[in-house]
Amino acid sequence: MGQPNHYGIELPARCLQLVDGLWEQAESIHGGNRPDLGPLTTTFLISMAMPIINLPIERIERHINKDPGYADDRKINEKAVEAFDAVVRKGTLAAAPFYEDGAWSFLALREEPLFNIADGIPQETADRLGSDEASENARRMPANQWVSILRNALAHGGIVYLDEDGRSGHDRPVKMYAFVNGKYGRRDCQHGEGHCPTGLGNLEGLNILRISEDSFRSFLRTWVEWLQESEQQA
């Protein structure tokens, strides 16, 4: 296929076509010597989710109210810009057309001790993510916070695989995902005004979104449908 007219919308749609067209093949491929852990569908879906989510955010939403950028799709479709502004930047997650009630859970950890996701998610945190409160937290959260966490986790590797009970484990098939990003404080400047080095301050918290694999695949479809609807309105 040639150069798309609207990279930030057409590329996610092409990636979704790959998911649909190659899903059966992905289900037939198992990794290494552990066939009991199931097919490589999780690897496939996460790989496709990165451009499906991040491309429209980076090429449309992140440029809103800013000077023209070098990878800026805003001029191509003003309706898409308006949709991102109204739904993502100013709306709640529950009001978004791609939201599925009860699919997402959200937890904002601000208390010590925080943990390294390379070790998985602690039992207590997993229990809290499975609570009604965490589901309500997601429903009420601003959509711009939701998309920022998701984009950051996909871009920087903040992804944890969980089993059907929402637990971390190396010996159980993946049925859920946790998308995690860190909340950092300001970096103390020790060099006087105008000479403060760039970089992050201390880690002060973790933001965690949880969703089942089936619901995530369904979400990707409704997300792309929403993008395409905004393109058709142009």
Radius of gyration: 19 Å
- Outline, from the CA principal axes? globular
Output the helix-strand order: HHHEHHHEEEH
In the predicted model, the low-confidence regions spanning at least 5 consecutive residues are none
Beta-strand fraction estimate? 5-15%
In quaternary terms, these chains amount to single chain
List keywords for this structure.
4-stranded antiparallel β-sheet; alpha+beta; 7 helices
Explain this structure.
It is a single chain. The chain has 234 residues and is an alpha+beta fold. It has helices at residues 7-27, 41-59, 78-89, 123-129, 132-140, 143-156, 213-232, and strands at residues 105-109, 159-162, 176-184, 203-212. It is built from 7 helices and 4 strands, in the order αααβαααβββα. Strands 1-4-3-2 form a 4-stranded antiparallel beta sheet, with helices on both faces.
Helix/strand layout:
Elements (H helix, E strand, L loop, with lengths): L6 H21 L13 H19 L18 H12 L15 E5 L13 H7 L2 H9 L2 H14 L2 E4 L13 E9 L18 E10 H20 L2
Antiparallel strand pairs: 1-4, 2-3, 3-4
Short note summarizing the structure:
The chain has 234 residues and is an alpha+beta fold. The protein has helices spanning 7-27, 41-59, 78-89, 123-129, 132-140, 143-156, 213-232, and strands at 105-109, 159-162, 176-184, 203-212. It is built from seven helices and four strands, in the order H-H-H-E-H-H-H-E-E-E-H.
